[in-house]
Amino acid sequence: MCLNPKKITASAIMIMLLSVSAPAAEEKAAPLGALDLRQCYERALKQSENIAISEEVIRQAEEQYRQTWAQIPPRLSFQWQELYQDPSQTKLRQPQGAFKLQLPALTGYREMAALRSATAITRRREYEMKRAEQSLLVDVAQAFWNVIQIENQIQVTKSQQALMQDRIKELSERERIGRSREAEVVAAQSQLAGIEANREELEQARVLARESLAFFTGADKDVPLADTIPLPDQPNDLSRYLDSARQRPDILAQKEVMATSQAAVKVARSGHYPNLSINTNYYPVREGNQGQGPIKWDFMAAIEVPLYSWGQVQSSIREANSRLRATELALKLQERQVETEVRNAWDSLRAFLSELNYYEKVVALADRNYKLQAGDYRRGLVSNLEVLQALTDLYAARLRRDQVQYAAKLNAIRLAVAAGAISRFGGEP
Fold first, then answer.
1. Under a CB-based contact definition with an 8 Å cutoff, are residues 382 and 373 in contact?
2. Residue in 149, 155, 39 with CA at minimum distance from that of residue 405
3. Among 40, 133, 369, 422, fewest CB within 10 Å belongs to which?
4. In this structure, what DSSP letter does residue 21 have?
């Protein structure tokens, strides 16, 4: 009965990861021994205790369905009893063995409603597990790109540190021949010390980021990572994402909650309906019939028609209807929240991609400005402070560009997960 949602969800999300790129950009293969986002996510699915718990909850729901179904058919049993009485009137010992076939009190209507409720509960648990797996992708992607971003910042800082060291050598040589002041050298050395302090801070942040990723994946904290996911396209028509989100697993799970509440109303109404019970006995051993012939079997059918229960049934119906209305309101609330989540993710992705285009220009201009300032300094047209500021601006622009780039990739995944199952990040839902 279980649809094995883990396999379905994992396969669907792997397709999203494989098709995340724009039509003009293909996903790169990860270097040998390195983990990419897809591999990290596969590891996280196996590592996550929450996913394992969800699997157990589904098994429990399936067993509850079987238990509900098992209450409907007649129950077969064998009963042996010994009766001892005053021997002056009858036998002292009266043994009796009987095969008993018992059908508990049934209305038919109540039992079918209970089965529908049990089915809805199982489906709800499956949808909840699907959503947990989708949400796990966002967590893993955030941890993955956090490590990638910090390690990239470390490399940028190393490059900045090397340039600053070259700058200090040049200033020291100029000071030796009297073309620069000692204060200029000291200013550059001070800025270099700040860069080294920032690099140390990034190294500490890298350790924490690696710990977070290892928590999700169970991978070694020093395993190489490869960012094989290219930048997404600008997201298309928002309405398509909103339509897709209406079939999100958590929305479908809430609909199953509503189906359970509808079944509960029917179960409550069954209190007004008559119920049937049947008892059948076959006696291979029976003694002590006081002169009567041997009785081998008996059969009894009973119909009970409820007449008055002091308002208990009506109260149960009103309570069940109230719970149903509450689940309907909860579904409406969740649908509005999901719509807001999709809109926010869609807007954020568009904004980050637009911002990234501007930062590409900023980096190019900052690089040109630094080179011009360095050249002008050698000709005595600008001060050393202006050169240092240009260098600082260049690396600040590079760091911000990289931050926006990884934020765009992460928001593409957030949009994909917010919209439920879609075929590509930032593409067609």
1. yes
2. 149
3. 369
4. S
Answer for the pair 144, 225: CB distance below 8 angstroms, yes or no.
yes
What is the tens place of the pLDDT at every residue in 137-192?
999 999 999 999 999 999 988 988 888 888 888 888 877 887 778 888 888 888 88
Distances 158 to 147, 165, 300 between C-alpha atoms, Å: 17, 10, 90
The residues, ordered by sequence, that sit 6+ positions from 304 with a Cβ below 8 Å of its Cβ are 105, 274, 275, 277
User: Three-class SS of residue 146?
Assistant: helix
Q: Are 253 and 124 in contact (CB under 8 A)?
A: yes
Q: Token pair of 155, please?
A: 């490399």
Residue 95, helix vs strand vs coil: strand
Q: Residue 180 carries which side chain, given as an amino acid letter? A: S
The model's confidence at residue 336, banded by pLDDT at 50, 70 and 90, is very high
- Maximum separation of any 2 CA atoms in the chain, in Å: 137
State the Cα–Cα distance between residues 404 and 411, nearest whole angstrom: 10
5-72+113-264+334-418 in CATH: which number?
1.20.1600.10
Closest to 134 (Cα-Cα) out of 8, 267, 297, 296: 8
pLDDT digits (tens, 9 = 90+) for 261-294: 999 998 899 888 898 888 898 988 877 655 556 7
